[in-house]
Every structure is written in C-alpha cells, then in structure tokens.
Design brief:
The complex is a heterodimer. Chain A is mainly α. Chain A is built from 8 helices and 2 strands. Chain A is about 55% helix and about 5% strand. By secondary structure, chain B is mainly beta. Chain B has 2 helices and 5 strands; from the N terminus they run ββαβαββ. Chain B is globular, with a radius of gyration of 14 Å. The chains are: A mainly alpha, B mainly beta.
Chain lengths: ~160, ~100
C-alpha cells in the first residue's frame, strides 16, 4: 500500500514518534477530495453518509474489494498468548466473544483496519479490564513501561 | 419460549432494521427473502450478548434459524449457476413471513 509517498509496508526499526504520527495522519483521505471535507468533523452530513459511517466494520459481506493473496501463516507466540488470555477472561466471566467483537467494532474503522488481528483482541482486552474495574489505566501504563524498559535492556 | 414462530420450509424476509454499534445480521441479507432450512436452539440474542448480558437471566432468549437465499437474489448481476445458494443464521426477531 502506498499513499502520498510513504510506503506503509516498509518495516522501520524503532522509528521516531513524529515519523509514525505522520503516517497515521496520512491515513486520512486525500485533502483535495470531497471525502476529506466530510471526514473533518463537518457541521452536517446527509443521512446516507451517516448510514455508511455507522456501518459496523466487521460486516464485510458484499463490500467492494479486490483479490486477496492467499498466505500460509503460523501463529506467533504473542498471538497465541493473546488468544489464550482473552479466552481465560471469558472463562472467568469478564466478557464473552460477542462482547469482544462488539468492542473491536467500537475501535472505529481506523484502528479496526490498522491494527493486526490479534492486536485488536489485546486492545479490547485491556479496555474491558479497565472498563469493568479489574485494572486501572495507570496500573496498565506502569506495566507497559516496565516491559518497555526490560525490552530496551535486552537489545 | 419453546414455541417457534417459523418452521423449516417457511419463506421469510429479513427485516431491514436500523443497526446501532454492532450486529450479526449481515447488511447484504436485509430485506432479502429466503427459506428456513434449519432450526437452531434458543439462545441469548447477540444484541444483548454483545453488551455482556449473556445469561438466560440477563439476556433475551430467542429461537434461531438458518435461512437459505438464492445467490441470484443476493447480488445484482450474479453470473454463477442458478441453483447457487447462501445461508446465514439469525434470531427470530429479524424474520418476517414472506
């Protein structure tokens, strides 16, 4: 995928934050189009456009699309761990699969299509734990910082 | 509860109701007519399950059905065989007699 000169496929090792932020901004529609105006918090929109915006991202049947390359891919460790964590949360009564799918839709189209499949799971797991009062955002932030520091020490 | 509004072989139309935030009733089935081909046991509807109301005490329990549609009725300009079909599963509230 190539948008306005930035190759989103190229793996960048530890890129500076502002470069990543530019890439996120680049996910917006081309500023010269009518769509850009519509997606810039407009004062009003037609009902048809509201219906299109409201459409849930996981309901893809019949949507326009192109050919998709078939790839064999083994699950990575973090993907399996995410899967098991989410299933355990269900087993302990924190949520159910339908709730997770709804929460993935709630991420909105940009994150829904921008995140890897299991990153959507991980993100919604974090959200449900905070939402239901099982962890606090600052506890989770502290843990992430701890892991980041450990990873930085490993490299 | 155990009473089912539809039977296998009934022609049904999927309601084109407004969906908010989440749905398991695919957009491409809305307003389309098909035939009930399978009964599925009653369970909590996704509209409740998706919000954590997922037990018989907290969620609304309804019979589910598998509905078969002709592909030709689903997609404008469908070029496949006439007998091609497609099936989806929905709770009773989404169906009306055709």
């Amino acid at each position: 995928m190539r948008r306005r000169g930035i190759d989103l496929r190229s793996p960048v090792s530890n890129p500076p934050f502002d470069e990543l932020q530019r890439k996120v901004l680049d996910l917006r529609p081309d500023p010269d189009t009518e769509l850009a105006e519509r997606l810039d918090s407009p004062y009003g929109i037609p009902n048809e456009f509201y219906a299109a915006l409201r459409h849930v991202p996981h309901d893809v049947g019949g949507q326009p699309d192109g050919p998709v390359e078939y790839k064999e891919k083994e699950e990575l460790d973090w993907e399996l761990r995410t899967y098991v964590t989410c299933e355990c949360l269900g087993w302990r009564g924190v949520w159910n699969s339908e709730e997770r799918r709804r929460m993935e839709n709630d991420l909105g189209a940009t994150q829904y299509f921008g995140l890897p499949y299991y990153a959507r799971w991980a993100t919604t797991a974090a959200r449900v734990l905070i939402n239901k009062g099982l962890v606090t955002p600052d506890e989770l932030s502290a843990k992430l910082d701890e892991v980041r520091a450990r990873k930085a020490g490993e490299s | 509860m155990s009473e089912r509004r539809f039977s296998i072989g009934d022609r049904v139309t999927v309601r084109d109701a407004t969906s908010l935030f989440h749905t398991r009733t695919q957009a491409f089935t809305r307003g389309k007519t098909g035939v009930v081909v399978e009964d599925r046991p009653p369970w909590v509807i996704p509209e409740d399950e998706a919000w954590g109301r997922d037990t018989e005490e907290t969620g609304r329990v309804e019979p589910f059905y598998v509905v078969r549609y002709r592909q030709r009725d689903q997609w404008p300009g469908y070029t496949g065989a006439d007998g091609d079909t497609l099936e989806t599963e929905v709770s009773e509230r989404w169906l009306e007699p055709a």
